[in-house]
Design goal:
64% of the residues lie in helices and 0% in strands. With 465 residues, it is mostly helical.
Length: 465
Amino acid sequence: MTDPTPTPPPESPRSESPRPESRRPFQLSSWSEAKFIGDVLRTETVGGVLLLLGAVLALIWANSPWGDAYESLGQWVPWSGGEALYLDIDLAHWAADGLLAIFFFVVGLELKREFVAGELRSPRRAALPVVAAVGGMAAPALIFVLINLNTGGDALRGWAIPTATDIAFALAVLAVIGSHLPQGLRAFLLTLAVVDDLLAITIIAFFYTEQVNFLALGGSLLPLLVFALLLRAGKTWWWALIPLAAVTWTLMHASGVHATIAGVLLGFLVPVLPRKGEHHGLAEHFEHLWRPVSAGFAVPVFAFFAAGVSLRDGGIASVLTDPVAIGVIAGLVLGKTIGILGATGLITRFTRADLGGLKWIDLLGVSLLAGIGFTVSLLIGELAFGAGSERDAHVKAAVLIGSLTAAILAAIVLGRRNKVYRRMSDEERRDQDGDGIPDIYQQPEPPDVTQAAGGATDSGSTASR
């Protein structure tokens, strides 16, 4: 749903010069876009650190002498009277189905904004991250299937586990290694992750929904419609919107469709374009409100309940001999890198897109970073094999091993280029006239920031074409 009212003029008429469509896909189109993405990345970075803390705490507790208490906490059913709506679920399921709905609500907001006002609104600019995301999901799935083709049983149900990218985890790794990735490359990673989330949502809806209660599913559309109408009329009454969202989630959960889909639909119905006299649309306003809740609470709590796999009693050995676990690790580390790098190479070759001073080693680092698949990978693992099953435990361990391996390799590759990235970032922030807007966003065709930064290279670089 889009808001029919036109976008008001920019806040400052001198702020940005119009910029023609460029063949440089790793440059942001405007300063406002750069500011928005910068705010998003800062929030996700903090959330990624909290996610890591939650996962580490879960691993320590699950492998301590008090591991049984950790399992008991996840299995505790806080509301035993919700059988009629299938809400008699344990705490771990509340985290996966309930809290992750907030995460997917933010994903829905991101998707709507990207398609209406972000980098995906232009087919030409959208082509690279979309094709890269498709390649980055197809290759891991193919590798997983090839490894498990003759495994038998329900092994192939896990084909989608290594296809997801966890942007919060990836940005936390960037924060730890101190990489100053250029804004365009960060935007590419973020946009790729958004498209990745869209494809993951589609996979969950179509491949991991076994039985559907169409009466409950149809009933969920009514509060969803009222939610949309209120927002379209500009009514942001929290006392009405939150209960409508809760009823939508409850009916979606009762229908058999994974309840997080409700979060996506709710987010996708929020208008993006500002109303007359406003500078920001409701989608951006809601993102500012709910992204900290998602990144700072919902995802870390889910990680705490999902990542606590016991590695005692030969756990590692059993994981490394399970073809499903091997497929997940290979998919995340090799599949993501091959898929994203290969798809990017193909589209830049056929469209003759200019990398804008970036080198293929930079894209290699980002491709490795995209192999960090945590939140959605763990969720798909539970949907594929059942929470608490032996194979689900192997999947959790494999996701952790694969994500950690991808993070270490990405840190090595990107760390070697950190001095170059710092110079590029300094050039992007240069504001000689002191008007609060970097000079690079006030030119019709921005300079190559790598060349402006001195054309620095390093021994690990390769030719950009």
